[in-house]
């Protein structure tokens, strides 16, 4: 055989060919929120805003073989772009890594990756960067020997924080932070109802708002439902209010200044009484 397509047969040689007809894999992938809201697993419950520590966006990728025999899957690639109003978390100038945890469940399936040594099993827990997800983080080159009617999962945790940099419009800096300017969009995820006749009440979402995350499976079965691609997206909502210290908003701007001035006036007024009593007591002592 000169290559994988051409076989040269010498005069007088005999060749026997065996044709094996294997059914196409019936594998699907679904992206959900790890902590979903009631009624729609593709939308996550609201995450409280934190300026002190990373907010964890938690998603679950479920890969299922709904065929009749064990099979290998195609590559599983995850995509995440930080939406406007948030930024990828960091500490002391060092980027905080996202984590991906593989769970084979009750199966003996193995998730693999390609490296300099060829193909090897992935570690159960791995770290990924912001660039990895922006370009497409390869969760697995493939899942090997996934049994019929069985599933494996990948748990994804992506660290983000509110972006408190001042926003700008047409080059002009506004009084709002980027989080302020986008808080309403971050606080909502859209619910979409599937039109598939076999799943009439199945709830989905899209990537138009909130904090969306999408996954792709190479060679995914496109026949199990009309929403085979739409269920590859999950969305998490963000509380649209920044946390506050007692009596002091952290959003900056005029509201913060007003609180500071009011606080100073209260302190000043409160100090008048004690100062007057101290002055009287000092005067009486000198007399």
What distance lies between the first and last C-alpha atoms, to the nearest angstrom?
A: 119 Å
List low-confidence stretches: 247-287
The SSE order reads EEEEEEEEEEEEHEEEEEHEEEEH
Mean pLDDT: 85
Q: What Rg is obtained from the alpha carbons, in whole angstroms? A: 29 Å
Count up the helices.
Answer: 3
Number of strands: 21
Query: What structural category do the secondary elements indicate?
Result: alpha+beta
Strand content: 35-45%
Q: What's the oligomerization state?
A: single chain
* Coarse morphology: elongated
Main sheet attributes: strand count, strand direction, barrel closure:
6 strands, antiparallel
The percent of residues in helical segments reads 10-25%
Describe the structure.
By secondary structure, the chain is of the alpha+beta class. The protein is 17% helix and 37% strand. It has three helices and 21 strands. Strands 1, 4, 6, 9, 12 and 15 form a six-stranded antiparallel sheet that branches. It has a six-stranded mixed sheet with strand order 2-3-21-20-5-13. A hairpin with a 2-residue loop joins β16 and β17 (172-177). The longest helix is centred in the C-terminal third of the chain and has 34 residues, at 253-286. The relative contact order is 0.19. Mean pLDDT is 85; it is low at 247-287.
